[in-house]
Amino acid sequence: MDLLLIIINLIIFLALIGALMFLKKRNVKFSYRVMIGLLIGLVFGAVIQLIYGVSNNITVQTTDWMSIVGDGFVRLLQMIVMPLVFISILGAFAKMDMKEKFLKSGSKIILILLGTTAIAAAIGITAALLFNLDASSLNLGEAENERAASLQTSAEEVEGQTLPQQLISLLPANPFLDFTGERATSTIAVVFFAVFMGLSLVRLIKSNPETGEKVRAGIVAVNEWVMQLVKIILALTPYGIFAIMANTVATSDFQAIYDLGLFVVASYAALIAMYLVHLIIITLTGLNPVQYFKKTSETLLFAFTSRSSAGTLPLNIQTQRIRLGVPSSIANFSGSFGLSIGQNGCAGIYPAMLGIMIAPAVGIEINATYIITLIAVTVIASLGIAGVGGGATFAAIVVLSTMNLPIALAAVLISVEPLIDMGRTALNVSGSMVSGTVTAKTNGQIDKDIYNSDNLDELTAEV
């Protein structure tokens, strides 16, 4: 009987995917199909849980098969991360006017990313204090204990290093190893490698223009090639989002979410407050925040549902270029840097909240010195955060271990991680786009006609 019900569930699942394919044939806009995929995923997942429950064998088997589409989509996003980051930065150098100064724009982007992360950490601390979050009263179940053991294993790699040693580890001793994503800091290492390669391209063009132009043309060609691969993967987004949301809702422990509801509410209060800060920053530069909201909402929705800053990179860069009027070089730099430097949600708000939440459980007094230290450590630890899954965990491990706090207590949040991670990822991407937009505006390079226009050019993933 169970097998029959599983088969029926999967037939319905495939039929819904077929419906999304039909919408594509009817030329329904990509963004609409993503939203429809999200909604039917929510409904389908809720129906499965209501009928069978969370831990029922039918639910487990059904979601396991559905994960072929959902987890498969995420793995494909992971597949394109390193080549996309590398070629985006190299492409930015190749397309950059030689009169442009990388140091000026790059430094400004990094300072904005780190500055907004400091603000995000302060907001996270404030939210934790206002909501009186305290890990002392939380209990670790079987799943949480397994998570705690896993976190402890990861922490052992970090705790053996001083903070200066952790910063040195961001540099690529073996870039080919980092292209495999083997290290927690592989993404930032690839960013550094690409920047060095880009700077060497600039020097080559100056010293040997003929050879330099050939290399530049080759990089532009490879960039176009990789972007075609990206479009192939992103074209699968409506189906991937549908499966991800269906699995997430079907397997979510709503009792645990209820028990940890205060943390969820506090987290989203902090995330929304930081997003409002983004809008204020846009306003202070003399740009219309309403335009920013309208023109970035589609990309932020993708980030929210996919939970992948790296997977959102192509739409991030497109949004900056064709909707916000940011030059290609700055859009590529800010998009790529934002994957691994100063992620406002994962590396700012989250670890700072944990730092406040866990301190009372181990008898540490929360005073001004502790708060200032926590913000400083959070900002430094925000360097090198991975852009696809696990970034927030790595940031939390670094911050908590540096602050001499037990990381095991963070494991109690495992049941609400997916729910919070959606908002964190969207905020990460917004912070990246804010850094590019503000840099372009203060450099006098933004196209105000594009920014102020009401034309929302389609962010397409079609091939």
Automatic annotation (TrEMBL):
Recorded superkingdom = Bacteria
Membrane topology (UniProt): Multi-pass membrane protein
Q: Which GO terms describe its cellular component?
A: plasma membrane
Which keywords belong to this entry? Amino-acid transport, Membrane, Transmembrane, Transmembrane helix, Transport
> MF terms per GO, please?
L-cystine transmembrane transporter activity; symporter activity
Pfam families, sorted: SDF
- InterPro entries (alphabetical): Na-dicarboxylate_symporter, Na:dicarbo_symporter_sf
Where is it mostly found?
membrane
Transmembrane stretches in the record are 6-23, 30-52, 72-94, 106-131, 184-205, 225-245, 265-287, 367-388, 394-414
Q: Name its cellular compartments.
A: Membrane
SUPFAM superfamilies per UniProt: Proton glutamate symport protein
Belongs to which family? Belongs to the dicarboxylate/amino acid:cation symporter (DAACS) (TC 2.A.23) family.
Supply the name of the protein.
Answer: L-cystine uptake protein TcyP
